[in-house]
Write a structure and sequence with these properties.
The structure is a homodimer. The longest helix of chain A is centred in the middle third of the chain and has 25 residues. Chain A is built from eleven helices and no strands. Chain A is mostly helical. In chain A, α7 crosses α11. Chains A and B meet through α8, α9, α10 and α11 of A and α8, α9, α10 and α11 of B. Chain A binds a DNA duplex through α4.
Chain lengths: 241, 241
DNA sequence: CCCACTTCTTATCAGATGATAAGGAGGGCG
DNA sequence: CGCCCTCCTTATCATCTGATAAGAAGTGGG
């Protein structure tokens, strides 16, 4: 009695839909028979939520159940599970770095601190969500290349521009010298510290501070003060130790 | 032809051990017949490495192959896979917070900056390893309770003591007022920023700065300067925004 | 009302995977 | 030397799980 016995199968799967009891999952009643495009979007949207929650080892049957469809229907829209997963990646990661952010960072008509605080407010709104953070971490642990590419973009389009502004902020000539490792790492610590707020919230499910803007402001202030106090521009690798 | 055909099975599995070719995995030749305790330790050690690498959905057969033993032998030492996983958790997380660290943090005969730099050097040595960081993140994403407990300990034994030292450092009376959310979050940003260095290194496999001590020193300096510049002690929740 | 097209379900497969049972093999002790 | 205890392997199970095939069911045009 390994597989389900052929004819005696479960008693009317569809009855369960109408029955008031016996719906363990939030299986949306889901108006049957959607247009193809709509169904595809529905699957994708729920897949993002599902994989964010349980990871990419989550099973297609459970995903289908959540959507309120049968598991084989997934394969009508996505040839393989891997295809679906990749669409999820794109859905999440292709929220590309907004070019407006680079402009905001470089807008020297405003104090750098204000720019950075506003930038992080917007950046957080775009990426510090349950789905984004968790999919990001799952993908990273899987060794997905998308992560490394994303990191590179963050460095080039956000962190290095911030370093440039810091030089300006400190009264240094913009200089053509490339951003040093020390400068970049200093900004990474701030960036990572702010990111880690989201990790604590969505990955650890830990209680976190309520006033995110205030946290960011202190982090930015500290970072700028640190630069002023220690000076990271000089490529003198040796400092402590 | 579903399962392997009974008698015609794979041609001499043991021959593969001796054969120079056809050993895809680093299957240690592994002197056969270890004492029970030794074998258990060997399995546990390799399990830590294995699960850190591929996550806890990694398969028992592959783990066994890496050790150079057969898969059923695992079950002689660990009744279920879950048991093995839990032992791995303990192996990793029971590297408890060293009480010496709290002492180090509170040693007011030395400048706070030096204490914190030294603390992070030691803390990093204990926990910023490939295995620890990845197992920690995998466990967190799985929703393991161990994480939350660990976070709590970090807050109580490390971060809050740091907050107390910061008050002292700023010339404030130690006060009996509990550490405010703002104070704690400010330290969390530094702590998270430093932790994130390890995440970039071991989870993202990203290139990171070489001089960790220097990075920590700048982060600490910035954090302290930030406190001085903005003052986090007052429970005035509204700051920016 | 019925045909044709699209959407969705039922039944099922084949390989993967955690786990178990039964017996072989090394090696020390009487 | 052979018994026996412990360690380890082979063979196999039962279930899970990604994927496919065949046909049922809804829907709109003529």
């Amino acid at each position: 009695m390994t597989r389900a016995s052929p004819a005696s199968g479960r008693p009317a799967a569809r009855l369960r839909l109408g029955s008031p009891a016996a719906k363990r999952q939030r299986a949306a009643p889901s108006s049957k028979r959607l247009a193809a495009a709509a169904r595809e979007q529905q699957i994708l949207a729920e897949a993002v939520r599902f994989f964010a929650e349980v990871g990419f080892n989550g099973q297609t049957r459970e995903l289908a159940q959540r959507i309120g469809i049968t598991q084989p229907l997934l394969y009508r829209y996505f040839p393989t599970k891997r295809d679906l997963v990749e669409r999820v990646f794109k859905e999440v990661f292709l929220k590309r770095i907004d070019p407006e952010w680079s402009k905001l960072i470089a807008d020297r008509t405003r104090p750098l601190e204000d720019r950075l605080v506003e930038f992080y407010a917007e950046y957080a709104q775009a990426t510090y969500t349950y789905e984004w953070i968790r999919i990001y971490m799952f993908a990273a642990l899987m060794g997905e290349d998308l992560n490394r590419r994303y990191i590179k973009i963050v460095e080039e389009k956000l962190l290095k521009p911030i370093c440039v502004e810091i030089r300006h902020h400190c009264g240094l000539a913009p200089g053509d010298a490339p951003i040093s490792e020390a400068e970049l790492e200093h900004v990474w610590v701030m960036h990572g510290g702010i990111f880690y707020y989201a990790v604590r919230k969505y990955v650890y499910h830990s209680r976190v501070g309520t006033d995110f803007t205030a946290i960011v402001r202190r982090a930015v202030t500290g970072m700028l003060a640190g630069v002023a106090a220690i000076g990271v521009t000089a490529p003198s690798g040796r400092r402590g130790r």
